[in-house]
Amino acid sequence: MKVFILFVLALAGLTVGNDLGAEPSLDKTMRPGKIAAKPLFRDPIYDGAADPVVIWNRRERKWFMLYTNRRANLKDTKGVEWVHGTRIGIAKSTDEGASWKYKGVADISYGSPDFTHWAPDVVYHAGTYHMYLTIVPGIFKDWNATRDIVHLTSKDLFKWKYESTLKLASDRVIDASVMRLPNGSWRMWYNNERDKKSIYYADSPDLYQWEDRGKALGERGEGPKVFRWKDKYWMIVDVWKGLAFYSSDDLVNWTRQQQNVLETPGTGIDDKVIGGHADVQVSGDRAFLFYFTHPGRQGPQAKADGYEQRRSSIQVAELEYNDGVISCDRDRPTHIRLRPTNGKD
Q: What is the pTM assigned to this prediction?
């Protein structure tokens, strides 16, 4: 029987090891995993899912997505009030990232009920999840309010305890991205809006005490995300013309690649516009880019301010690495298989 199975696999162009349970090797044009939904996720409450971060929930043994939820379908708002007054949404995947279901909002007891929660980043360390969250103290018609980054902790990714408000470079800081350094300490990158929206960074020995270190990148952008892949460190930054990619060998000196990613609109459902503020999950030797789009911001009505222009969708695409350059084909079906790692997730 074993010989027959091997014969059938050989006819199919696959190979196996000594153990019939071993995963077969695949042609480079093939990818393991289910095809991801497109769009990957839309928030069923406000339809304003954006700024995703994906993390493995060790207690439930499922993948969770935490995201900014803007109130896109809210009527009778003034200015950008619809982007304020939000809570962090939570979605869960039971099929290794191919599809997601809404699970509710994060229980964050901080400030008054009208406080705005934006752009979470979450890391796991020593039995505890740590969230670094942008807080805007209320609901505003414009973009001129102060903003802070606060530190929260949790055991389950649902209920969060306030730990501190970080003392960073200014009173208008957003979009934290946290990564553990090779020496065991931690580094955070964030956007300092007071300095022409430059990317700054801070260091911590323990995730609780932080020391600001100044400017990391002088170019304008927001939503930094730092990860390691293909023996390099990478930082992606939303530059409003897709995503800029920077590489580094030391997490201090950064070199920008010439090509932006997601600058050219795709052709899929809700994907025919530029992509913005993204997360990356490295799974083995593969990397998946989770980003969001404003599907209605295209064509003659692109600059209108209605529900269709405000709503947003989460998408995913697999990154490709060739000759030192990262790219992705957002129109190719994404076969996704997220696997837990021993690092951040």
A: 0.90
pLDDT tens digits along 174-220? 999 999 999 999 999 999 999 999 999 999 999 999 999 999 999 99
pLDDT for residue 100 = 98
> Is it the case that residue 19 has pLDDT exceeding 90?
no
Instruction: Return the pLDDT at 15.
Output: 31
All structural domains of the chain with their residue ranges? 33-336
Cα dihedral 156, 160, 164, 169 sign: positive
Q: Is the domain defined by 33-336 classed in CATH 2.115.10.20?
A: yes
Q: pLDDT band for 342, please (50, 70, 90 cuts).
A: low
pLDDT digits (tens, 9 = 90+) for 207-238: 999 999 999 999 999 999 999 999 999 999 99
